[in-house]
């Protein structure tokens, strides 16, 4: 272990109480806690960035049936993907102070972890924060479950989110001819077209005509591929407009996770199964654990695309551990464009 003075405390974001409905900043607090001296086989990391992901709403709400992640109880520290700098590491291990690493102990400024839970950053990606991009699921779905073919018309629901902002670009790079998206914000719709290459973005909400009608007008000949991050009315509409043999991949359930009612663990949707049969549609949910080869392939291609300028990684930054208490509520409220990252 190094002889330099190591921090003796860490600041963490903890859940104060389980919300009745959507979480607000008052449901979280920043706590200073003792940080033990690293023991054998442990790595101390100074976190630099961590990701805010919508699945935390489900874990906080208590709906964890079928999820590989633990329920968050009041008093627990939040967690999630993070990148940072090694401050101390076992002398007999591969890591050294100054190395940049990734792990799942975000939502704190310092993390003491078993060395087995810390990974060196992949040199395929040009920046540390790029390791927090949530494009792996979109890439896996668009190459495995609903493969994009040259000339396809592709719809991405929730296009302004962490997955959607990458999904449209990925579909284009895989050969799609026309990319449609959906969002609830005119400003975000403009950015998706102007900055990320979407051909048309449909605004959803009660003040607009039915989503299915607007989707038919935008894709009169039908849709070949759907990358759905939302569920609900948008998934139903996509199935109505899907072309013969269309492929539909569900990678998220924001309609349930962002709803004020419920606990974020369900996302019911009405589906016309007759249409599934007569049009020969495929409808599948994407789970990364079913495709263990995708992550490495995605990082290699993502890194190449980033370096060449073929793709952008849009993310919004929340500053500091104190600002983190508002990060999840702001994400749920749709305040940000792209991924939401806390910078420490």
Automatic annotation (TrEMBL):
Residues 21-342 form the Enoyl reductase (ER) domain. It comes from the Bacteria. One of its GO terms (molecular function) is oxidoreductase activity. SUPFAM superfamilies: GroES-like, NAD(P)-binding Rossmann-fold domains. InterPro entries: ADH-like_C (IPR013149), ADH_N_2 (IPR041694), ER (IPR020843), GroES-like_sf (IPR011032), NAD(P)-bd_dom_sf (IPR036291), Zn-ADH-like_protein (IPR051397). PANTHER family: QUINONE OXIDOREDUCTASE-LIKE PROTEIN 2 (PTHR43677:SF4), SHORT-CHAIN DEHYDROGENASE/REDUCTASE (PTHR43677). This is Alcohol dehydrogenase. It comes from Streptomyces katrae.
